[in-house]
Design brief:
Elements (H helix, E strand, L loop, with lengths): L12 H47 L1 H4 L16 H10 L21 H14 L18 H14 L1 H4 L6 E3 L3 E3 L7 H10 L14 H16 L11 H31 L1
Antiparallel strand pairs: 1-2
Helix pairs in contact: 1-4, 3-4, 3-7, 5-8, 7-8
The structure holds heme C (HEC) (2 copies).
């Protein structure tokens, strides 16, 4: 770098400095370039949002309010996130045809573009659970131990309502936890994160993505043996659901009592 020294400037110093400056500008430009590209993205995003809002106001706002704020008919959608809309619409629950105890699962009449647009619009109201990517619930690399762990997690967190074999069960007031035999991996993930209706929300803090993937892996093994392992004396889904309820709640109560005792001792 002698030619850049102050005392004896090499004749090539100026052009070199120019080249250097150009190079720096080029680097700066390429660093800025992605933002130029994302303006194009922004405008497609804007048009998707506008389309979602329009679809929402036509199909959903009669129950959920013009801006998703909720009405006496239906809860607010502010903060439920794209995952909730994706789950509710793809499983055909929403739009609900008429007020009833529970929206039935049915074939959706909406295209995936329409569902994505409405999901994007609802997500724009306030942050909430996102639609998961495939890697977040990829069960292909699970070991037998992880699937067994998924079974334990399922029995601890889910069987109280969905039955030990995931075949579902009745809940009070004409409601029910559906069978999970035919539910897709993505919808299991979304249900866990968004807690439809009576179901609790299980956030990352209580079940990590790895935990959720293990539960899905376990449920997939049940899909493969449609009649399940054991049948609680063939009481049918109602009887078994009730047992699940009793045992599940029972164990929750025991844990609560144990925790309370522990807390008392610690104090
Ligand atoms: C006839 C009234 C009705 C219409 C129309 C309707 N919904 Fe709902 N929606 C409900 C009710 C009631 C619930 C709560 C009970 C339930 O989840 O079963 C609900 C729940 C939801 C939830 C779950 C909220 C949560 O807390 O996770 C989402 C998401 C949702 N609706 C989206 C939509 C979308 C999107 C549309 C339009 C495509 C729509 N709904 C149309 C009545 C309606
Ligand atoms: C307190 C009872 C309860 C618990 C606990 C519960 N669920 Fe649910 N679950 C429900 C109810 C009720 C529904 C139906 C909601 C609806 O239709 O709007 C449901 C729906 C689902 C669905 C959607 C099924 C479909 O085909 O669309 C999945 C998947 C699911 N639950 C998985 C789980 C998993 C996994 C766990 C444990 C991590 C769990 N649930 C814990 C009550 C429960």
């Amino acid at each position: 770098m002698r030619f850049l020294s102050r005392r004896r400037r090499h004749p090539a110093a100026k052009p070199l400095a120019l080249v250097l400056a150009l190079f720096v500008m080029g680097a700066l430009y390429s660093a800025m370039a992605p933002t130029t590209v994302s303006t194009a993205d922004d405008s497609t995003q804007q048009s998707q949002l506008a389309k979602g809002k329009e679809l929402f106001q036509v199909n959903c706002s009669s129950c959920h309010g013009l801006n998703g704020e909720g009405t006496p008919e239906a809860p607010t959608l502010i903060g439920v996130g794209a995952a909730s809309v994706d789950f509710q619409m793809e499983t055909g629950r929403m739009p609900m045809a008429r007020p009833e105890a529970q929206a039935p699962i049915k074939k959706t009449l909406y295209t995936s573009e329409e569902i994505s647009a409405i999901a994007a619009y609802v997500a724009s109201l306030a942050p909430g659970p996102k639609i998961p990517s495939k890697e977040q619930y990829d069960t292909s690399k699970l070991s037998q131990e992880q699937i067994a762990r998924g079974g334990e997690l399922f029995r601890t967190n889910c069987s109280a309502c969905h039955n030990f074999e995931g075949r579902g069960g009745a809940l009070p007031n004409g409601r029910y936890a559906p069978s999970l035999m035919k539910t897709s991996d993505k919808h299991i993930y979304e249900a866990i994160r968004t807690g439809p209706q009576q179901m609790p929300v299980f956030a990352q803090g209580s079940l990590s993505d790895d935990d959720v993937t293990e539960i899905i892996g376990y449920l997939n093994t049940l899909h493969d043996e449609p009649n399940g392992g054991f049948d609680l004396g063939g009481f049918g889904p109602v009887g078994e659901g009730l047992w699940g309820w009793v045992l599940g709640l029972g164990s929750l109560v025991l844990v609560a009592v144990w925790l309370a005792k522990k807390g008392a001792r610690a104090r």
